[in-house]
């Protein structure tokens, strides 16, 4: 049977990249970019993306009712992948836009990297954290299958997640400080990086997600 | 673990073909952009930049189709620049699969355009491309000025002040090209890169003048660039991307291998 993937569209950013990456790793799958709650609830797999400012994202997420649908689907064991601001939106709150409360499925917060950052040799560190950085896999997970530990993934973000439950951390990265690169909670896997822009390592993660039944 | 310095091959595209003008010589055909992009992706390029140098309106639709084709096969960040003047131009390219757009002369004519674009699409996809030449004389303090029209028209705008302003207006990244060095193979203008890097907190991509692998290292080590862009050394097979990365790695620079 054809696997269906719903890419949740709440009007923020461009979802074509992630759709074409899915089409590349799973050419026989049915991929919908949609804000239709029914279609999302019926899909085999769900992608929860996010780009841009968290306040604008949360306004649209609430308006479309995804703040209740997303936690329900996670509770129901549906395989879900959250990316970038999609992951941040699942935390309790973010300090972006002078403080925004988020969906609060995962305990933890979203903080700003800071201004005028320097590395230990005194060289300037730019914000956003933009480019390829290594991810240390902190747990075994079906989504890490076939991906070397410390592989590079593509990041673009100025805010990072602090997880209150260390057991949910699936990957870590370092930029000025150590931060959460990936989280795992039941049938939910979330990444701060963009697998759809992360070359072979990212495509392998997306393929693993397509092959995953949501169980760890 | 730290953030890798990016190596970005740049494709000048004219009417659907990759071209590269070699100074004082004719424009050499360097192939089909989709094939070239795939080759660089397989070699491990960290990002690919296209500069659309097509002059005609009809030709401009070609770049959109080219970006669509590349974006369905290449899964690393793609930046497209050249002739972008309106919010609609940006939307079309992002929808075609570009991750970032480069804004150059449109920013000079109307700086507010950068602010609008950044608010609309997010700073992460707005690259402000700056073409500059050194205008200070020997013995004077270094001073560079923005030039438009392929380096022919001076604008009177100081490059350091301009970079600060563009970062303030919401640029997510600066692509800094030395028009003095472009095509010369004499290396980057590292003092200009350093001057810009000193005043902005957003990533700076060094461009213009790469002739050998040590130049890439100099851009990072001396200029402080976050990424290095080159065209002809890669297009005509003088060096491959793995060679460039191996060389940079040997010099102690963090790269994605």
From TrEMBL, chain A:
Assigned GO CC terms: cytoplasm
Subcellular location: Cytoplasm
Gene Ontology molecular function, alphabetical: glutaminase activity; imidazoleglycerol-phosphate synthase activity; lyase activity
Assembly mode: Heterodimer of HisH and HisF.
Catalysed reaction, written as an equation: L-glutamine + H2O = L-glutamate + NH4(+); 5-[(5-phospho-1-deoxy-D-ribulos-1-ylimino)methylamino]-1-(5-phospho-beta-D-ribosyl)imidazole-4-carboxamide + L-glutamine = D-erythro-1-(imidazol-4-yl)glycerol 3-phosphate + 5-amino-1-(5-phospho-beta-D-ribosyl)imidazole-4-carboxamide + L-glutamate + H(+)
All residue ranges annotated as the Glutamine amidotransferase domain in the record: 7-210
SUPFAM superfamilies tied to this protein: Class I glutamine amidotransferase-like
InterPro entries: Class_I_gatase-like, GATASE, Imidazole-glycPsynth_HisH
Pfam families xrefs: GATase (PF00117)
Active site positions: 84 (nucleophile), 194, 196
Function: IGPS catalyzes the conversion of PRFAR and glutamine to IGP, AICAR and glutamate. The HisH subunit catalyzes the hydrolysis of glutamine to glutamate and ammonia as part of the synthesis of IGP and AICAR. The resulting ammonia molecule is channeled to the active site of HisF.
Keyword match Phosphoprotein: no
EC code(s) of this entry: 4.3.2.10, 3.5.1.2
One GO term (biological process): L-histidine biosynthetic process
UniProt pathway annotation: Amino-acid biosynthesis; L-histidine biosynthesis; L-histidine from 5-phospho-alpha-D-ribose 1-diphosphate: step 5/9
Record PANTHER family: IMIDAZOLE GLYCEROL PHOSPHATE SYNTHASE SUBUNIT HISH, IMIDAZOLE GLYCEROL PHOSPHATE SYNTHASE SUBUNIT HISH 1
Taxonomy, superkingdom: Bacteria
Name under which the protein is recorded: Imidazole glycerol phosphate synthase subunit HisH
Main subcellular location of this protein, as a coarse class: cytoplasm
Keywords: Amino-acid biosynthesis, Cytoplasm, Glutamine amidotransferase, Histidine biosynthesis, Hydrolase, Lyase, Transferase
TrEMBL record, chain B:
EC number, as in UniProt: 4.3.2.10
Reactions catalysed: 5-[(5-phospho-1-deoxy-D-ribulos-1-ylimino)methylamino]-1-(5-phospho-beta-D-ribosyl)imidazole-4-carboxamide + L-glutamine = D-erythro-1-(imidazol-4-yl)glycerol 3-phosphate + 5-amino-1-(5-phospho-beta-D-ribosyl)imidazole-4-carboxamide + L-glutamate + H(+)
Catalytic site: 12, 131
Name of the protein this chain belongs to: Imidazole glycerol phosphate synthase subunit HisF
Quaternary structure and interacting proteins, as annotated: Heterodimer of HisH and HisF.
GO terms for biological process, alphabetical: L-histidine biosynthetic process
Organism: Candidatus Endobugula sertula
Pathway assignment: Amino-acid biosynthesis; L-histidine biosynthesis; L-histidine from 5-phospho-alpha-D-ribose 1-diphosphate: step 5/9
Subcellular localization, as worded in the UniProt entry: Cytoplasm
Source taxon at top rank: Bacteria
UniProt keyword annotations, A-Z: Amino-acid biosynthesis, Cytoplasm, Histidine biosynthesis, Lyase
Gene this protein is translated from: hisF
HAMAP family: HisF
Record-stated family: Belongs to the HisA/HisF family.
PANTHER family referenced in this protein's UniProt entry, alphabetically: IMIDAZOLE GLYCEROL PHOSPHATE SYNTHASE HISHF (PTHR21235:SF2), IMIDAZOLE GLYCEROL PHOSPHATE SYNTHASE SUBUNIT HISF/H IGP SYNTHASE SUBUNIT HISF/H (PTHR21235)
């Amino acid at each position: 049977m054809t696997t269906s993937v719903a890419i949740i569209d709440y009007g923020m950013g461009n979802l074509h990249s992630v759709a074409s990456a899915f089409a590349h790793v799973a050419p026989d799958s049915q991929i919908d970019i949609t804000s239709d709650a029914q279609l999302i609830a019926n899909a085999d797999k769900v992608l929860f993306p996010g780009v841009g400012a968290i306040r604008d994202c949360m306004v649209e997420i609430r308006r479309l009712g995804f703040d209740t649908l997303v936690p329900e689907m996670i509770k129901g064991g549906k395989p879900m992948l959250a990316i970038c601001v999609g992951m941040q939106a699942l935390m309790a709150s973010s300090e972006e836009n002078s403080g925004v409360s988020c969906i609060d499925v995962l305990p933890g917060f979203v903080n700003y990297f800071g201004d005028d950052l320097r590395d230990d040799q005194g060289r300037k560190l730019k914000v956003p954290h933009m480019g390829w950085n290594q991810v240390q896999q902190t747990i075994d997970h079906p989504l890490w299958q076939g991906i070397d530990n410390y592989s590079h993934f593509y990041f673009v973000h100025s805010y990072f997640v602090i997880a209150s439950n260390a057991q949910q951390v699936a990957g870590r990265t370092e930029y000025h400080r150590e931060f959460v690169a990936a989280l795992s909670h039941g049938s939910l896997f979330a990444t701060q990086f963009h697998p759809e822009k992360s070359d072979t390592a990212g495509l392998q993660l997306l393929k693993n997600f397509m092959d995953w039944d949501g169980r760890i | 673990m730290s953030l890798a310095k990016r190596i970005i091959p740049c494709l000048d595209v004219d009417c659907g073909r990759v071209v590269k003008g070699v100074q004082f010589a004719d424009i050499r055909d360097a192939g089909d952009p989709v094939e070239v992009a795939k080759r660089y992706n397989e070699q491990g390029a960290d990002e690919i930049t296209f500069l659309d140098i097509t002059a005609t309106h009809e030709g401009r639709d070609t770049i959109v189709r080219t970006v669509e084709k590349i974006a369905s096969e290449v899964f690393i960040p793609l930046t497209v620049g050249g002739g972008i003047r309106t919010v609609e131009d940006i939307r079309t390219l992002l929808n075609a699969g570009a991750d970032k757009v480069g804004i150059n002369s449109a920013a000079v004519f109307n700086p507010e355009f950068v602010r609008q674009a950044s608010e609309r699409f997010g700073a992460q996809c707005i690259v402000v491309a700056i073409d500059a030449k050194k205008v200070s004389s020997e013995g004077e303090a270094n001073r560079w000025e923005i030039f438009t029209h392929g380096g022919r028209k001076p604008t009177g705008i100081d490059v350091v002040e301009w970079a600060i302003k563009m970062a303030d207006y919401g640029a997510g990244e600066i692509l800094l090209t030395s028009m003095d060095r472009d095509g010369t193979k004499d290396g980057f203008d590292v003092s200009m890169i350093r001057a810009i890097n000193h005043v902005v907190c957003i990533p700076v991509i060094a461009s213009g003048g790469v002739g050998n692998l040590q130049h890439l290292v100099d851009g990072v080590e001396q200029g402080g660039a976050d990424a290095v862009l080159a065209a002809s050394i890669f297009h005509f097979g003088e060096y491959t991307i793995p060679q460039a990365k191996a060389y940079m790695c040997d010099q102690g620079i963090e790269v994605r291998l």
